[in-house]
Known about the structure:
The protein has 308 residues and is of the alpha/beta class.
Amino acid sequence: MELRHLRYFIAVAEERNIGRAAARLHISQPPLTRQIQQLEDQLGVQLFNRTPRGMELTPAGELLLDEAKNINAVIEQATERTQRAGQGKFGRLDVAIFGSAILDTIPRLLVDFRKAYPDVKIVLHSMQKDEQLEALRQRRIDVGFNRILTLSPDIAAELVDTEPLFLAIHEDNPLADQASIDFNMLADEALILFPTGGRPSFIDKVLGLCQQAGFVPKIAQEVGDAVTAVSLVSKGFGASFVAKSTVALSLPGLTYRPLRNVPGSTKIDLSCIYRRDDRSPILAAFLEVVKSNRNRREAANNESQSGC
């Protein structure tokens, strides 16, 4: 039995007339009649009673009609799902997340992608930078998010956002009384640095800024991530440099201040990384959402600055 047999059978069964079914299928009557006879021969049963009024279904024909409609519906669904998958509108996207961006930037990006592609299942994996690179090469994830990247030939990156640097500080610290904090005033401040994972990392960014300012930072603790760092800050354990995304995290005793007179760039890049040879339509769709979000933020920032 071939799919065309079922399509011809459904048309005849619904029209109850060979002539009308042939017109519906845009074929002539003789080949349609031969196809129905061929189907009956293959099944070894009579599907229609030929009467002066037309084609009447037999009990076997009635059963086949139900089954044929179910099969046809499954085929149509499979066709549509395949086409949507080819357009990046259906399937699965495995995303590795890590760091302070999960507090703000990444969730907003994932929500925008889900709104645009509701039939793509997003699966999140918590992985540090080295784990993300390994998982990408092993094809266990499709995309990751991280900062301070050193890329290899097989890994590509797309800029997601550029965030200013802030200082997380306990509200009882005298520096918290200032609207912004001069970077050089941090030479004697106990600092909590993160992350302790693969290098180069955000730690190296902070150490480089301190070196340019002419002092060696007093490191109170190195921890794995921004959440742990600001949790310690909220208890008065020290201060910590953080990206703007972290400001979304509020804890008792914790406050944030912008920095001034920073010797180098106060901007921290967040990028998504992916396999350079990945031609997945879903990945391409995700990267378009990333670019669209970035362009929209840049336009809003430019408008805000011009308004000032």
